[in-house]
Amino acid sequence: MRQPHRLISLDAMRGFTIAAMIVANFPGSEEFVYFTLRHSRWNGLSFTDLIAPFFLFIVGVSIVLAYARKRADGSPKGPLIQKIVLRSLKIFAVGMFLNLLPDFDFATLRWTGTLHRIAIVFLVCALLFLTTSWRQQAWIATLTLLAYWLAMTQIPTPDVGRVVLEPGQNLAAWLDRRYLPGRMWQGTWDPEGILSTFPSIVTGILGMLAGRLMVSPASQTAKVSYLMTAGVFTAALGYFWGLTFPVNENLWTSSFVLVTAGFAALVLGAVYFLVDVLGHTSGTKPGVVFGANAITVYVLADLFALVFYRLKVGGEPLNEQAVASLTAVGVSPELASLLYALLFVGINFIPAYVLYRRHIFIKL
């Protein structure tokens, strides 16, 4: 394998994914949000449901770009593994810190979350990349999805006595109630729980398989063709699997893995063709700026939210006042909520741009 030139397309895709995550996480008003900017209540797929799997897919691609040359050069694995473990622990620790905000109430601490899952997926996928071939990775991904499907659809939930895929009653929820420490996001179950983490690792593995293609000696047009073909095939396979094992982000079902990874491959292929092959880089700068310090921006958004979503002026939080002011002049509540979210993205862009201009790239 060879190391390609830096992929502007991947940097931009990472950055715009983080920007979309901020929009989804921080609307002007939780009450007024366009339906596709909400997570699906259960089965189904909205725009927001694509954000987390896209980021994990990008994590997988980035692992290959970061470690391909070191693996090819025969660099000692010991120091690399130590750095991978340390970085995973740092990301997990930052996730715990954010979960403690703003009250630092350890009694209600949640031990799972977006950064926690990113840390676990990065750890497992990076170790797999260093110790297995791409064929072995493909087999691990396939067997994991099949095993998860069989477990969720064939093993009865112990306290229910039958197979159930409904919220809080399925096997994954039962395992979380029994073994997951701390508070769960939905009280009796958690979307980033124990069992659903296994298929989320497969999302990262599929990203690694795409990354292996990107560092292969294939021509640029061949890479685009392979990515687009694989994307269509994977998404279609996920759709048909979803007829019996529904596409569901909360359970991170096997069908959800394939559909979202297929879409991620299609987007990466399209952006790679436009940006890295044809050279159309205009419009990519915001994504590249966000992508250069993606996790830092994610953390800053949570910190800034303490001011822009919790600070009360005149008895009302700033976001509620802004939405109320916009609706008072005729803007629909949903649009007002989205405009405030976009404003918040712009606020987060300022420190991200300062870091980028000063060539400061914070790596956990």
From TrEMBL:
<feature type="transmembrane region" description="Helical">
    <location>
        <begin position="251"/>
        <end position="275"/>
    </location>
</feature>
<keyword id="KW-0808">Transferase</keyword>
<feature type="transmembrane region" description="Helical">
    <location>
        <begin position="12"/>
        <end position="30"/>
    </location>
</feature>
<dbReference type="InterPro" id="IPR012429">
    <property type="entry name" value="HGSNAT_cat"/>
</dbReference>
<dbReference type="GO" id="GO:0015019">
    <property type="term" value="F:heparan-alpha-glucosaminide N-acetyltransferase activity"/>
</dbReference>
<feature type="transmembrane region" description="Helical">
    <location>
        <begin position="335"/>
        <end position="356"/>
    </location>
</feature>
<feature type="transmembrane region" description="Helical">
    <location>
        <begin position="50"/>
        <end position="68"/>
    </location>
</feature>
<feature type="transmembrane region" description="Helical">
    <location>
        <begin position="138"/>
        <end position="155"/>
    </location>
</feature>
<feature type="transmembrane region" description="Helical">
    <location>
        <begin position="226"/>
        <end position="245"/>
    </location>
</feature>
<protein>
    <submittedName>
        <fullName>Heparan-alpha-glucosaminide N-acetyltransferase</fullName>
        <ecNumber>2.3.1.78</ecNumber>
    </submittedName>
</protein>
<keyword id="KW-0012">Acyltransferase</keyword>
<keyword id="KW-0472">Membrane</keyword>
<feature type="transmembrane region" description="Helical">
    <location>
        <begin position="193"/>
        <end position="214"/>
    </location>
</feature>
<feature type="domain" description="Heparan-alpha-glucosaminide N-acetyltransferase catalytic">
    <location>
        <begin position="6"/>
        <end position="219"/>
    </location>
</feature>
<dbReference type="Pfam" id="PF07786">
    <property type="entry name" value="HGSNAT_cat"/>
</dbReference>
<feature type="transmembrane region" description="Helical">
    <location>
        <begin position="287"/>
        <end position="309"/>
    </location>
</feature>
<keyword id="KW-0812">Transmembrane</keyword>
<feature type="transmembrane region" description="Helical">
    <location>
        <begin position="114"/>
        <end position="131"/>
    </location>
</feature>
<feature type="transmembrane region" description="Helical">
    <location>
        <begin position="80"/>
        <end position="102"/>
    </location>
</feature>
<keyword id="KW-1133">Transmembrane helix</keyword>
